[in-house]
């Protein structure tokens, strides 16, 4: 029996299709390396928020990422703690710095060009020196801005920690175990602070350490000592079995008093800043109202 080439090719294709179908139906054995990589708790991408895994959003962020890869974080000395508080990636921060530096470099050039069109001749050295100075000034401007934003974010974090203390106290009053009290209280709250707390507790479980140790580490990373307070108090309950409900309540009340004092100080500072503008406004209104009468008296 002689088989034609078409029959052989058709039979081979049918057999290959059956093999592919069987391979798709029967689950394949997962690669051990990939499984261990997904279970590795030291890899931050397992628990990080989606914002860190997304691609750069714009051209400036891409430029910042390229600069970060080529120069390195150690050379640039980025304020990682402040960036972590305001939830901004290092690439986005560098992109903003590059954009503002380029703006400062071109601003004197554009001003001199407009002056030249108007007939005013300015030497070339003036925009060159002014452009370099503005570029350096604008390069450091985002660092000052994120410091102020980090202070505000830290204040928001303290309010969230106060709420977290109250929630942990309620969970402990309901006879929840120390670990369960920390987890349940973190699941109730919303916002980026509670998200970080939940991620920290989950990472601590994967690493085989206690949740309060993870919270203490998070308080150091964010530079928020108030977050380490519930960790220390719950550690006493977890290690010695002590009742810590009253301690959590006292810590929450102390933090509330500190927040009220801070809010009053900020309000007083804002009121002091308004003294000079209000005084100048009153002086201008006095001159505006009194000058016509004074002019009439002097004329008569």
Explain the overall architecture:
The chain is mostly helical and 300 residues long. It has a domain at 154-273. The protein has 14 helices and no strands. It has helices at 5-25, 32-39, 50-53, 59-71, 73-76, 80-86, 90-117, 125-173, 178-188, 192-207, 211-222, 225-240, 245-273, 275-299. The protein is flat.
User: Which descriptor suits the 3D outline?
Assistant: flat
**Strand content bin:** under 5%
Distance between the termini: 136 Å
How many helices does DSSP assign?
14
Multimerization status: single chain
Q: What is the H/E string?
A: HHHHHHHHHHHHHH
Percent helix, as a range, is over 70%
Helix-strand category: mainly alpha
Described by strand count, sense and barrel closure, the largest sheet is:
none
Unreliable spans: 41-54
**Strand count:** 0
User: What is the averaged pLDDT score?
Assistant: 75
Radius of gyration: 32 Å
What's the topology here?
Elements lengths: L4 H21 L6 H8 L10 H4 L5 H13 L1 H4 L3 H7 L3 H28 L7 H49 L4 H11 L3 H16 L3 H12 L2 H16 L4 H29 L1 H25 L1
Question: How would you briefly describe this protein structure?
Answer:
The chain has 14 helices and no strands. It is mostly helical. Helix 8 (125-173) packs across helix 9 (178-188) and helix 12 (225-240) runs antiparallel to helix 13 (245-273).
